[in-house]
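Dear Dr. V.,

Thank you for agreeing to look over these. As mentioned in my earlier message, I'm a first-year student in the group and I'm still getting used to reading structure tokens, so any feedback on how I've presented them would be very welcome. I ran two proteins. I've put each sequence directly above its structure. The first is here:
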Amino acid sequence: MTLVKFNPKTNNSLMPGFNDVFDSVFNDTFFSDRMMAKVPAANISESADHFHVELAAPGLKKEDFKLKLERDVLSISVEQVHEDQKQERNYAKREYSYSSFLRSFTLPETADQNGIAAKYNDGVLCIDIPKREEAKVQSRQIEIK
């Protein structure tokens, strides 16, 4: 028996072209840009004395971000509401747009939650999470007797 991947565009013999209509509607930029959730990409790195989180979120202001720490979970959220209103002689136009995202990261036990610092520069939110002193990698020379 041979397995063949199902392709709805070629395997829909009852109603050819039916899926093409929906593909063109839902792949439209209106749906992809406005209806789909956009969550910024994150880079997480670790060094000997801290954890570092970088969140790519261009086009925002630092005031747009809300950082919240609750029960070892660091949450980063943005919520934007925009209203455009135009009044002309015979008509009124009012448009709304809304966008939001939420990213949450569970902090390890080695994180020093009191020393967390964040800055936003050039479209990247950088969060530094220091490690507790006892968790930092310490190296020393051991004398051989």
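The second protein is here, in the same arrangement:
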Amino acid sequence: MLPEDDANRQIANGFILDLNLNSSAIRVIPVARGWKNVVKKFTNDYASTMRQHPHRMIALLIDFDEYEDRLIYVKDQIPDDLKNRVFVLGVLSEPERLKRDINKDFEKIGEALAKDCSDNTNELWGHHLLKHNKTELDRMISSVKPFLFN
């Protein structure tokens, strides 16, 4: 997982704490410091190594900052040969707003999102600040679940 900022890093860390998850298969990369840097870091540092490891996948964790076209922009930067192994997820606005809305710290948010994945539920993923992730989430779960969940 390549997080944009510390809030997304904490969510990712919470996600891998879920007991139903094979967390040894997941690594949280240091924060990129901005969504544009996530894209740059991915294309410059990780795309080539993904080509050397054909089963490696990555989740780019960004804030959408209320920009509906950000997902399209980011996906357009992903090389065609890697598109099926790169997932772009994030809060519609920013994680701090989600934290206030549901009154949970970032790590607990990550744990709840992982629980939704392992239980095949949509409790937190259905929140209005996260529901825009549905297509990417469905794609990720169908691609990754056999490798991650016990």
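From my reading of the second output: The chain has six helices and three strands. The radius of gyration is 14 Å. Does that match how you would interpret it?

Kind regards,
E.
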